[in-house]
Amino acid sequence: MAGENLTSSEYIKHHLTNLTYGQHPDGTWGIASGQEAAKEMGFWAVNIDTLGVSVILGCLFLFLFRKAASAPTTGVPTGWQNFVEMVLEFIDGSVKDSFNGRNPVIAPLALTIFVWIVLMNTMDLVPVDYIPHLGQLVGIPYLKVVPTTDPNLTFSLALAVFFLTIYYSIKVKGPGGFFAELAFHPFPKYMMPFNLLLELIALISKPISLALRLFGNMYAGEMIFILIALLPLGVQWTLSLPWAIFHILVVILQAFIFMTLTIVYLSMAHEESH
């Protein structure tokens, strides 16, 4: 369903452009006319589509799980209640296997991360032209509906995990214990500068790897769907179905990896210094 008036490169560029709101160079505020205009808006520009879709999917998650929790059946559970219970048992097992401390926040956090990222990743399975075409009908020039293909969102999630890791590291070990962990390991104390350099690099690499792993995999998947959409209609159906089936595994796997690493990082933050 590639646009008839767009070249292949223009079609790809259009589908990879966010709907960005910010301040134009002339001082006025509004929607960017393209990628170049969005870059000129600077740091405070907002990708409306990323923010909007992620918030809508977050509200959907809360609504569906609250519905299952507020009206449980006593005998044989309904299909949806049974599915939610399976997800909760899966998350509970993952936390018990990977988290060695005691913190009532970890399981709800893991559940939120896993389900929310799965929902955002699943938007990549919607045909690439459908929702953007509906947006154009109501005057929306650009619309990216997969929030996890936007590095702004993946880095936001990763930074939230990073700050929680720092917070619990200081809370559990104390400021001195946290500093000692960075300064006096893995080498003897007289190599403190070298220890600090290594540990700070390892600490900072955690959110970067979390963000880039999720973004890279989902961006690559979206790009393949866009390239398939440029092919003749018969070839599209031949390639898109098997790729979509394979991509379901990517959608779930990337959410699972992000959740598991979050649990592991927070578990390390709760380990007492020795």
UniProtKB/TrEMBL annotation:
<keyword id="KW-0378">Hydrolase</keyword>
<keyword id="KW-0813">Transport</keyword>
<keyword id="KW-0406">Ion transport</keyword>
<feature type="transmembrane region" description="Helical">
    <location>
        <begin position="43"/>
        <end position="65"/>
    </location>
</feature>
<keyword id="KW-1133">Transmembrane helix</keyword>
<protein>
    <recommendedName>
        <fullName>ATP synthase subunit a</fullName>
    </recommendedName>
</protein>
<keyword id="KW-0138">CF(0)</keyword>
<dbReference type="GO" id="GO:0046933">
    <property type="term" value="F:proton-transporting ATP synthase activity, rotational mechanism"/>
</dbReference>
<keyword id="KW-1003">Cell membrane</keyword>
<dbReference type="GO" id="GO:0016787">
    <property type="term" value="F:hydrolase activity"/>
</dbReference>
<keyword id="KW-0472">Membrane</keyword>
<dbReference type="InterPro" id="IPR023011">
    <property type="entry name" value="ATP_synth_F0_asu_AS"/>
</dbReference>
<feature type="transmembrane region" description="Helical">
    <location>
        <begin position="152"/>
        <end position="170"/>
    </location>
</feature>
<dbReference type="InterPro" id="IPR000568">
    <property type="entry name" value="ATP_synth_F0_asu"/>
</dbReference>
<comment type="function">
    <text>Key component of the proton channel; it plays a direct role in the translocation of protons across the membrane.</text>
</comment>
<dbReference type="GO" id="GO:0042777">
    <property type="term" value="P:proton motive force-driven plasma membrane ATP synthesis"/>
</dbReference>
<feature type="transmembrane region" description="Helical">
    <location>
        <begin position="219"/>
        <end position="239"/>
    </location>
</feature>
<dbReference type="InterPro" id="IPR045082">
    <property type="entry name" value="ATP_syn_F0_a_bact/chloroplast"/>
</dbReference>
<feature type="transmembrane region" description="Helical">
    <location>
        <begin position="190"/>
        <end position="212"/>
    </location>
</feature>
<dbReference type="InterPro" id="IPR035908">
    <property type="entry name" value="F0_ATP_A_sf"/>
</dbReference>
<dbReference type="GO" id="GO:0045259">
    <property type="term" value="C:proton-transporting ATP synthase complex"/>
</dbReference>
<keyword id="KW-0066">ATP synthesis</keyword>
<dbReference type="GO" id="GO:0005886">
    <property type="term" value="C:plasma membrane"/>
</dbReference>
<dbReference type="Pfam" id="PF00119">
    <property type="entry name" value="ATP-synt_A"/>
</dbReference>
<keyword id="KW-0375">Hydrogen ion transport</keyword>
<keyword id="KW-0812">Transmembrane</keyword>
<comment type="similarity">
    <text>Belongs to the ATPase A chain family.</text>
</comment>
<feature type="transmembrane region" description="Helical">
    <location>
        <begin position="245"/>
        <end position="266"/>
    </location>
</feature>
